[in-house]
């Protein structure tokens, strides 16, 4: 049972992968990846802007503290000039506390400035990568589109070739069928001529009747020829002799069928 379930799982995954391959468009995937890279670049740029803003804020605080430190220093000098050593000491104590804050802020400012430089360099490198990816993406998309068009054209030509092949086969079959019919018609004519087949139309004669018709036709020609000779000779006696002579062939021709054996058609 476990083997059957395993096979079903493999078949399902194979079908799912095949369906995903058909549904996936590489151009859409490339556009999605490019969009994600742009979003990452925007985040890096916002990070650079945030660090720069913090650095500017520290610079403003440093300027204020330095101004206060200078003011306390002046106040200490004036107090000391007026003989107020205690007041001068208080001013210098406050100035020392401000100087400690200034030192801390300067350290933070240097750290932020270094971080800003790193982020700026990273943003520049990422921008270069995004630009290169965009160029490659457009190249791949153009190549894929061209290949897709070529594939469609090839498939169209393949379909036309298959259709033309079918047409060629149909023509060949028609020619073969026509040749068979012509050969059959010729064979039937030969069989009818030889008497092997009966002609139901009554238009075909057997060989004996054909020979009798040929002999009868030859006798008529001879009679006509003798008559023309008699007319040219102009003699009535010759004409009678010819007519008497022609009577004998006629009688012979009339007796000939009696001597000829009779063939009954079976």
From TrEMBL:
Keyword Coiled coil attributed: yes
Membrane-spanning intervals of the chain: none
Comp. bias regions, Low complexity: 248-258
UniProt keyword annotations, A-Z: Coiled coil
Coiled-coil segments: 48-143
Renumbered residue ranges of the record's region Disordered: 227-266
Record PANTHER family: MEMBRANE-ASSOCIATED PROTEIN VIPP1, CHLOROPLASTIC, PHAGE SHOCK PROTEIN A
The family this protein is said to belong to: Belongs to the PspA/Vipp/IM30 family.
Designated name of the protein: PspA/IM30 family protein
Source organism: Streptomyces sp. R11
Lineage: Bacteria, Bacillati, Actinomycetota, Actinomycetes, Kitasatosporales
């Amino acid at each position: 049972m476990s083997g059957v379930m395993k096979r079903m799982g493999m078949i399902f995954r194979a079908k799912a992968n095949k369906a995903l391959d058909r549904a996936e468009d590489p151009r859409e995937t490339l556009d999605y990846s490019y969009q994600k890279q742009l979003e990452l670049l925007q985040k890096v740029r916002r990070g650079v802007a945030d660090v720069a803003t913090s650095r500017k804020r520290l610079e403003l605080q440093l300027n204020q503290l330095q101004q206060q430190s200078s003011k306390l220093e002046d106040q200490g000098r004036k107090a000391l000039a007026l003989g107020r050593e205690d007041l001068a000491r208080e001013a210098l104590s406050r100035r020392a506390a401000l100087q400690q804050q200034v030192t801390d802020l300067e350290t933070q400012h240097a750290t932020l400035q270094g971080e800003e430089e790193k982020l700026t360099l990273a943003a520049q490198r990422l921008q270069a990568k995004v630009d290169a990816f965009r160029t490659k993406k457009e190249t791949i998309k153009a190549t894929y589109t061209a290949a897709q068009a070529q594939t469609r054209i090839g498939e169209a030509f393949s379909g036309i070739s298959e259709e033309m092949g079918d047409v060629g086969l149909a023509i060949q079959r028609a020619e073969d069928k026509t040749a068979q019919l012509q050969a059959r018609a010729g064979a039937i004519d030969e069989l009818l001529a030889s008497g092997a087949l009966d002609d139901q139309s009554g238009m075909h004669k057997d060989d004996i009747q054909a020979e009798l018709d040929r002999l009868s036709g030859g006798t008529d020609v001879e009679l006509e020829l003798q008559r023309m000779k008699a007319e040219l000779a102009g003699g009535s006696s010759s004409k009678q002799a010819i007519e008497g002579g022609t009577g004998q062939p006629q009688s012979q021709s009339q007796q000939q069928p009696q001597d000829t054996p009779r063939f009954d058609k079976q």
